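Pipeline run #58 for the internal structure catalog. This entry was flagged by the ingest filter as a single-chain record with no existing model, so it goes straight to prediction. Upstream metadata was stripped on purpose; only the residue string is passed forward. Reviewer on rotation: M.T. Logging verbosity set to normal.
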Amino acid sequence: MRKRFQPFQQFNHDFGIALVDVFGFDFDTAAAHFGVTKRTVYNWYDNNKAPRYIMVHLDIISRGYLPAYFPFDEWRIVGTDIHTPYGVISAFEVEFTKRFMWLAREATAQLQNKRMANEEMRLTVERILGEADKLQMLYKQAK
């Protein structure tokens, strides 16, 4: 059985704190964002409750637009850090890993190309040595 999504775990399931975390106390911006009146946003804040789709949307925004399903439902982006249940990851570490993996792929491709080039060179040297042996035999026969 699938676990039902519980919004605002990082705010102890408090809608008001999440609303203030995302929009500050700028209820005009929140109303414009959700397409409702300012009074509606005030009511949500005062009652500490909103329609489920609003709560899920606000939760996704408050966590940095991460998906609302496992394993991302417990993750949150704060500034340049990604907070996970396993620890904090810096965005710079993610970028470094991406570049490191690219560098590893490029180095592997270059090494593979060198192996092919070495194999071609070995075959060329063997052909040259074979031709040299033939020429040496012809020279000895001509004597």
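catalog note: DSSP finds five helices and three strands in the chain.
catalog note: The radius of gyration is 33 Å.
status: ready for reviewer M.T.
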